[in-house]
Design brief:
The complex is a heterodimer of chains A (492) and B (96).
Chain A (H helix, E strand, L loop, with lengths): L8 H9 L5 H19 L2 E4 L1 H16 L10 E5 L26 H8 L3 E6 L38 H8 L5 E6 L5 H7 L2 E4 L19 E6 L2 H11 L17 H4 L8 E5 L9 H16 L3 E5 L7 H16 L17 H12 L2 H14 L5 H21 L5 E5 L15 H5 L6 H6 L3 E8 L5 E8 L4 H15 L11
Parallel strand pairs in A: 2-3, 7-8, 7-9
Antiparallel strand pairs in A: 1-3, 4-6, 5-6, 5-10, 9-11, 10-11
Chain B lengths: L4 H10 L6 H18 L35 H5 L5 E2 L2 E2 L7
Antiparallel strand pairs in B: 1-2
Helix pairs in contact in B: 1-2
Classes of the chains: A alpha/beta (492), B mainly alpha (96).
Chain lengths: 492, 96
């Protein structure tokens, strides 16, 4: 029998529909795979095998009764940023202690409502602040990928590093993730997986631990563009419990992946050719341009002239929002309280011992830029620069239907290689952060490998609410690239 | 604008983060490194630009009926409390 864990989501659903195997069988296959791999990869911070088997059995019963949902019986991983009822949720921070939600996030609830089975909670950078998954309270995630024959531990990217590592290593069919500055797309690019951040407001933020509320969006990491479309279809949708949730009807995302891109106009922004970009990334981008041309699309040069200011603007806006959002962790109502001599010192001790180094750094930046006397110079200016960046995109979409760029400025790096220099780490998100600032949908997909055999990704950015074009172009590139590389399972 | 040690202590106080004295100087250096990189925003012409306060265009914040939608379940609310008693959160003394 084929190894069920290597199937795509679409193949697995098809196999269950044809009664080739049950949800319990594929769930057990993943539980075994996680047992073997997780001590090496650290992708899951909580595994829920008993709950998974129970839900898989219930799912098989529903299918037998002809009541199969769109994702019936599919075993998935859930990023630890999503509150899951009765299962510990900490955003991989020490400050949340053993927090166990009494409610389910809208997005994970949507997936389970469609029949999906949860295998456990996935590791991530603490509060989603990081690009290498090294800031997690539960230790770094290791990528299944290696440079050639070296055994250097590589990052799967971040903040959704657990999601990317788990999908890439066949430890779930797909996973939830979130993206505030690139946290879905950068890990996807580093691990040869597909990730999409939809238009801001497509997925409800209710029950997702908040980082920077005007930027945070949930989305899936999956094995194929089609799988990512199927997962997003279930995750997205209007939710009255999130006031920024969009009321617009959802199009058929999976159908969009079958669409031809003939006649589409694909924008290529000159400003994404950054200093020090490896020639392999440049070559990959050129190759992507050739692929969409061969599929009948036209290339149009566009200008996104404020691109270089996107990251500095982000590092004002995101920490400012984070410092406000994270004020709630005071050790009074939940989390790990560390007593002091009075109320204020209890707050200060709780927060100093619960938050990690990067989170504390960002809280201090956020508090500083919002403090009296600096608000106009930093926060207000950053919001105006953000408007400039959004306007660049509005202008570009006057002529382009979608935009093609590299997903990251390099392939995955080694754990520890960049953790000493915050700014060098932040630069990882140079190609992804603009879509967050402008609220646009963007997808990363694997397109080639570098000289060391590591995956490299392309990114497709679309107009607000036009995930369909993003999926169409992404699927067209996927067909042309025919990316088949897979990390060797060295832990077996 | 350079962030001195006094400012670091003040900001840590505002953020309710205990910062050991030996971390003040290194933190000032780290924050200055990041803020120096952020200074390039001063190159951007922002004359007459409206600040972008929301990623959602053309949507005003919806109002909902002012009715109770959830509640009346103190056990659930207190489930994760570090300390609780008789249906209440127990916190350090606030008023002397």
């Amino acid at each position: 029998m084929t190894d069920l864990t290597t199937l795509t989501l679409a193949q697995a659903l098809d196999g269950m529909e044809k009664k080739q195997f049950s949800s319990l069988e594929i769930t057990n296959a993943f539980i075994d795979a996680i047992d073997k791999a997780n001590p090496h990869l650290n992708a899951y911070v909580v595994t829920t095998p008993d709950l998974a088997r129970e839900r898989a059995k219930a799912s098989d019963a529903r299918r037998a009764q002809g009541k199969a949902g769109a994702l019936e019986g599919a075993p998935l991983g859930i990023k630890d940023l999503f509150c899951t009822e009765g299962v510990r949720t900490t955003a991989c921070s020490g400050v949340l202690g053993e927090f166990t939600p009494t409610y389910e996030s809208t997005v994970s609830g949507n997936l389970f409502g469609d029949g999906a089975v949860m295998l456990g909670k996935l590791n991530m950078d603490e509060f989603a602040m990081g690009s290498s998954n090294e800031t997690s309270h539960f230790g770094s995630v290791v990528s299944p990928w290696r440079r050639g024959n070296e055994d250097t531990k590589l990052t799967p990217g971040g903040s959704s590093g657990g999601s990317a590592s788990a999908v890439s290593a066949d430890l779930c069919l797909g996973a939830t993730a979130t993206d505030t500055g690139g946290s879905i797309r950068q890990p996807a690019a580093f691990t040869g997986t597909v990730g999409i951040k939809p238009t801001y407001g497509r997925c409800s933020r209710w029950g997702i631990v908040a980082f920077a509320s005007s930027l945070d969006q949930a989305g899936p990491i999956a094995k194929t563009v089609e799988d990512s479309a199927m997962l997003l279809q279930s995750m997205a949708g209007h939710d009255p419990k999130d006031s920024t949730s969009l009321p617009n009807a959802l199009p058929d995302f999976r159908a969009a992946t079958k669409r031809s891109i003939k006649g589409m106009k694909i924008g290529v922004p000159e400003e994404y050719r950054v200093d020090g970009m490896p020639p392999e990334i440049e070559a990959l981008w050129q190759q992507g341009i050739e692929w969409v041309k061969a599929a009948g699309a036209t290339i149009v040069p566009i200008s996104l002239k404020h691109t270089k200011y996107a990251l500095p603007a982000y590092y004002i806006v995101a920490p400012a929002e984070a410092s406000s959002n994270l004020a709630r962790y005071d050790g009074m109502r939940y989390g790990a309280r560390v007593a002091g001599k009075d109320l204020n010192s209890t707050y200060e001790n709780t927060r100093a011992s619960g938050f990690g180094k990067e989170v504390q750094r960002r809280i201090l930046i956020g508090t500083y830029v919002l403090s009296a006397g600096y608000y106009d110079a930093y926060y207000l200016r950053a919001q105006k620069v953000r408007q400039r960046i959004a306007q660049d995109f509005r202008d570009a979409f006057e002529t382009a239907d979608a935009i093609l760029t590299p997903a990251t400025p390099s392939a995955a790096f080694g754990l520890g290689e960049k953790s000493g220099d915050p700014v060098a780490m932040y630069l990882n998100d140079i190609f992804t952060v603009t879509a967050n600032l402008a609220g646009l949908p963007a997808l990363a997909l694997p397109a080639a490998t570098d000289a060391n055999g590591l995956p490299l990704g392309l990114q497709v950015i679309g107009k607000a609410l036009d995930e369909e074009s993003v999926f169409a172009v992404g699927a067209g590139l996927e067909r042309a690239a025919n990316f088949r590389a897979k990390a060797a399972k060295w832990w077996l | 604008m350079s962030i001195d040690e006094k400012t670091v202590r003040k900001v840590a106080k505002l953020a309710r983060l205990a910062l050991p004295e030996d971390r003040v100087k290194p933190m000032a250096d780290e924050l200055n490194g990041i803020m120096a990189w952020i200074e390039q925003l001063n190159e951007v012409d922002i004359e007459g630009v409206e600040p972008m306060t929301s990623a959602v265009e053309g949507l005003s914040l919806p109002m909902r009926e002012d009715v109770v939608t959830a509640g009346d379940d103190p056990q659930k609310v207190l489930k994760n409390a570090p300390k609780s008693e008789d249906g209440f959160f127990v916190v350090p003394k606030v008023v002397e």
